[in-house]
Predict the 3D structure of the following.
Amino acid sequence: MTEELEKCSSIEIHEDLLKIVNETMPEETELYDLAELFKVFGDSTRIRILFVLFEAEVCVCDLAAALNMTQSAISHQLKILKQSKLVKNRREGKSVFYSLADDHVRTIIDQGREHIEE
């Protein structure tokens, strides 16, 4: 049995609050981009990759070994993370090393962890 959501017993529009909401609501494109970013965090494999990158800059070979996955599977997830600007890479000889794009990535994960631990 699902619990019914509580709701107002009468309809009353609070115009002052609506005005504030309408003035502060981001553009639809920004809301879409934000939702797309959070979708990237909706995959545990990508989260695991980010946790490895919290500790060190690593190549695909290292990530595959650390997470017991194929290089192909890791590369697929890294592509998504890179397109979302969460990771960056650099080439050194024949190796390509991946790292976090910036400290925001760690902050997002840390705040998510704090939220679920409350």
